[in-house]
Amino acid sequence: xxxxxxxxxxxxxxxxxxxxxxxxxxxxxxxxxxxxxxxxxxxxxxxxxxxxxxxxxxxxxxxxxxxxxxxxxxxxxxxxxxxxxxxxxxxxxxxxxxxxxxxxxxxxxxxxxxxxxxxxxxxxxxxxxxxxxxxxxxxxxxxxxxxxxxxxxxxxxxxxxxxxxxxxxxxxxxxxxxxxxxxxxxxxxxxxxxxxxxxxxxxxxxxxxxxxxxxxxxxxxxxxxxxxxx
Length: 230
Fold this sequence. Notes:
- By secondary structure, the protein is α+β, with helices and mostly antiparallel strands.
- Helix content is 37%, strand content 12%.
- It is globular and about 70 Å long.
């Protein structure tokens, strides 16, 4: 580095230090001029408008709860998911070797004709009809029914709605996915919305403490589980 440039840089650094020291001295002078018993404070005041406030959007507690809920659903549904093949069977591998080199590639295959758009609008009442569950969802429902029934049986003999809510929350179900619980038909009723990733699984349950009945059914994503006509 040239000597002139180095000298100029040192001069700027010294000037900055002098300015900072002057500011510190000024601040000490203002503190020293505060008289004992005065209402003034030695701590410099900050404008309330300039103080940053925490953004509620930065709170990730909701995201973490939903992530735990998704992990719960995946764990419960794991026995119901079909096993993926780990390797290509030998006969399929040999068949792939026999494909001629001049065969069209997948990206060259003709696309199927798209169905013509329907001009008739969907009947609004159709969304309120019960949807048939898939075989995987039926198996998934059995897993949820088993764990909920077991947890309720281990609880209070005469549960109140808040007792049932505590059990469901303790099992990992989100509060916004629980409808009720509320007293009805000599027991406590509740509904669980387990629809994720395009699924349709809902659970409607009633418990008296000694007996719990839970029925699975499918619901359209456009309506609440409690709005389905069954």
